[in-house]
Description:
The structure is a single chain. The chain folds into two domains: 2-50; 66-245, no CATH class. It contains eleven helices and two strands; from the N terminus they run αααααββαααααα. It has helices at residues 2-24, 28-50, 66-77, 83-94, 106-116, 147-150, 156-170, 175-186, 202-234, 237-242, 247-255, and strands spanning 125-129, 135-142.
Amino acid sequence: MSDRLDDLERRIDELRAGVRKAMRVKDGAGARVLRAELRTAERAWDALVSGEQPQAAPEPPRLVTVREQVHQGLRLLGAAAQPRLVVAVSDAFFGGTIRSGQLTSLRRDEERSFRSSPGGRPFYLCAALTDRLSPARGLLTLSTWPLERRVVGPLSPRVDFLTCAIAVASHDGDAERTSRLLARMARNIPGATDAEIGPPDRGRVIEAARAELGVHAGRDTRDRAELARRATAQLGDVARLFGAATLSTIKKERAK
Length: 256
């Protein structure tokens, strides 16, 4: 034990001298590294003197990428959604750090990745497909969803909104952020809320959303099934995920 203490004390002295030298020459980065090593050595010295086992330094939290945060949000919602809703869900339920502006070029990046290495990723963030089988503006979906869930017919925006509202009301997240998000959504669902001030009742939101879904779901399911059949018959692998090129898109590509 004595030899180990002597070694640690010498190392601590060397590190302190190194920190002072780094600060004199204004080497901030080097000083930070040395100070971190110094703190580790000092903890080991304290533990050895007290007879305790030194605790391992905690592993730094893994950084969650923007696309992973979007994936989390879409999985919770279970339906095509606009970027601002995905951002709000990521913030309320996962402590997300993304902003809507970061999603602007995301779908194009995903398409380039798929074209260069088809199937190289476990999932892709892709566009919803319109009745023209072109990419729907500002609607994100997941490649792992069945095609029927990634196409949008006339009633699909409303059906997807109600589906998302039910998902938000059914999951626990940050109480304040979740309540604020659900209140905004509930205002657009007849019978989901009233004039009383206060957080919306989750059960009431779910009941009201399901009641309206019962009106639209049958027709929407048939429309989506027909669109999915057309997409399967007419589109290749890339277009089934990211949409068929429109005339305006082709003109833009030729102009580059």
